[in-house]
């Protein structure tokens, strides 16, 4: 398929799957896709219930509502789809889209199992289509600055990493109440949410953030996964010691029992010449640490930032940017890669760092190793 031709930049013809009224992340996808005028939204399947899907599309002003992805594909006129449905449907939907020759944006985790993740990654490699997995924190300018500085050797050889994602959403046995939100109900069901709830839901973000910023592979893990709240079946907490391929050591924590924690995502990376610290609660700042020198706080929007970070800044320093803009940066980079294919040109190399299906598979293999380690109480290699 080709995009509508004409003068001016190619707009990618996009269809959404998932994210009807009341959904959490679907509306963020829709906003992110609008920020840079690189997409034309042509249709949507907003619910597994065909009637609701059509009604929601009409209510949201999306031109065409469909009852299924197959129906939307058959209607034609698409270059790409964006999937924001519960985890258990990602694999079938992504493969259906790729088989139809469509580029794909898909929310994390890539799938619930490594074999499903491998099928998607293989299909992406075979088709050569663009696949963006929305680990949206890697769209933040100061996370990109961290990556660029580490890659440029500004902290020397990385030797220590610590990263955590703390939420308070499961600090009490909320699942015993009858009126838990639908999005929590499917998440806590292992058939829909995955074998380790906390690792698939937020541990996946921690793993991707470590991989994105350091560029280092994780060789083996010693992990403990489980439930801290008594009586709970689903994993609410996962922690792991990490051995990196370059010899570095690290720790990660993903938990939902930290009372009052508000999506507290943070990472510290230390090398033999300095360290860098970033946290979501102060997402516009990156702290640069060096023994014997004052801490230096680098800020978003500043002219001294690396090109990868500058390209991700939209407003001058001090004007707040946040979650939607970071998400939008992934959509913009995805659009740039797709448009380059459609226009027969090279894509901007700064658009090349978006998480892919291979990234998602890497995370699923990491989670598998954590599960094996937790069950056996031993160090486990992360498969490739
Ligand atoms: N990147 C992030 O920061 C982030 C944040 C939240 C959720 N997520 C991911 O996004 C996905 C959705 O999570 P959520 O919290 O928005 O869930 P949700 O339950 O709030 O919304 C899911 C939506 O998908 C629709 N849906 C379900 N099955 C469908 C199907 N077969 N076809 C079309 N629509 C269907 C539902 O009607 C609903 O509108 C999950 O994979 C989750 O892990 C990512």
* Largest sheet, strands/sense/barrel: 9 strands, mixed
Kindly name the structural category. Answer: alpha/beta
Helix content: 25-40%
Q: Any ligands, ions or cofactors bound here, and which?
A: nicotinamide-adenine-dinucleotide
Identify the overall geometry.
globular
Oligomer: single chain
Taking pLDDT < 50 over at least 5 consecutive residues as the criterion, the unreliable ranges are 1-6
End-to-end distance: 33 Å
| Residue fraction in strands | 15-25%
Helix/strand order, N-terminal first: EHEHHEHEHEHEHHHEEEEEEEHHHE
How many E-type strands?
14
Overall residue-averaged pLDDT value: 96
Tell me the radius of gyration: 21 Å
Number of helices: 12
Explained architecture:
The chain has 384 residues and is α/β, with parallel strands linked by helices. It has 12 helices and 14 strands. The strands form 2 sheets. It has a 9-stranded mixed sheet. Strand 3, helix 4 and strand 4 form a beta-alpha-beta unit. Bound molecules: nicotinamide-adenine-dinucleotide. Nicotinamide-adenine-dinucleotide binds next to helix 7.
Q: Would you summarize the structure shown here?
A:
This protein is α/β, with parallel strands linked by helices and 384 residues long.
Task: Provide the fold topology.
Layout: E1 12-17, H1 26-34, E2 39-45, H2 50-60, H3 69-75, E3 80-83, H4 90-99, E4 103-106, H5 114-127, E5 131-133, H6 141-151, E6 158-166, H7 182-188, H8 190-193, H9 197-214, E7 218-226, E8 237-244, E9 249-255, E10 264-271, E11 274-279, E12 285-289, E13 296-299, H10 307-310, H11 323-343, H12 357-376, E14 380-381
Helix pairs in contact: 1-11, 4-5, 5-12, 6-9, 9-12
Bound molecules: nicotinamide-adenine-dinucleotide.
């Amino acid at each position: 398929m080709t995009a509508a031709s004409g003068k001016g930049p190619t707009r990618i013809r996009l269809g959404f799957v998932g994210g009807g009224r009341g959904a959490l992340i679907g509306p963020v996808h829709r906003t992110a896709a609008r920020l840079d005028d690189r997409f034309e939204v042509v249709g949507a399947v907003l619910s597994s219930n065909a009637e609701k899907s059509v009604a929601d599309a009409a209510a949201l002003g999306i031109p065409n509502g469909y009852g299924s992805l197959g129906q939307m594909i058959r209607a034609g006129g698409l270059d790409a789809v964006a999937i924001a449905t519960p985890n258990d449907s990602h694999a079938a939907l992504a493969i259906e889209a790729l088989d139809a020759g469509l580029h794909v944006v898909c929310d994390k985790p890539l799938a619930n199992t490594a074999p499903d993740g491998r099928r998607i990654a293989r299909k992406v490699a075979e088709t050569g289509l663009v696949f963006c997995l929305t680990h949206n924190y890697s769209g933040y300018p100061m996370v990109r600055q961290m990556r660029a500085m580490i890659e440029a050797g500004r902290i020397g050889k990385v030797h220590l990493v610590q990263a955590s994602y703390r939420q308070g959403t499961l600090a009490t046995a909320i699942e015993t109440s009858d009126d838990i939100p639908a999005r929590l109900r499917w998440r806590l069901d292992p058939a829909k949410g995955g074998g380790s709830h906390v690792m698939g839901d937020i541990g996946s973000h921690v793993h991707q953030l470590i991989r994105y910023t350091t560029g280092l592979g994780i060789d083996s893990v010693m992990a403990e996964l489980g439930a801290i709240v008594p009586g709970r079946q689903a994993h609410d907490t996962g922690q792991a010691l990490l051995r990196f391929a370059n010899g570095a050591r690290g720790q990660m924590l993903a938990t939902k029992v930290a009372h009052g924690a508000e999506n507290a995502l943070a990472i510290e990376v230390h090398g033999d010449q300095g360290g860098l610290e970033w946290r979501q609660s102060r997402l516009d700042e990156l702290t640069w640490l060096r023994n014997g020198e004052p801490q230096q706080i680098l800020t978003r929007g500043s002219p001294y930032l690396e090109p990868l970070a500058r390209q991700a800044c939209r407003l001058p320093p001090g004007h707040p940017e946040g979650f939607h803009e970071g998400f939008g940066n992934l959509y913009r980079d995805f659009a740039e890669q797709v448009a380059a294919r459609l226009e027969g040109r090279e894509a901007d190399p700064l658009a090349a760092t978006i998480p892919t299906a291979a990234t998602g598979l890497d995370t699923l293999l990491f989670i598998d190793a954590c599960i094996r380690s937790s069950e056996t109480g031993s160090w486990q290699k992360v498969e490739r």
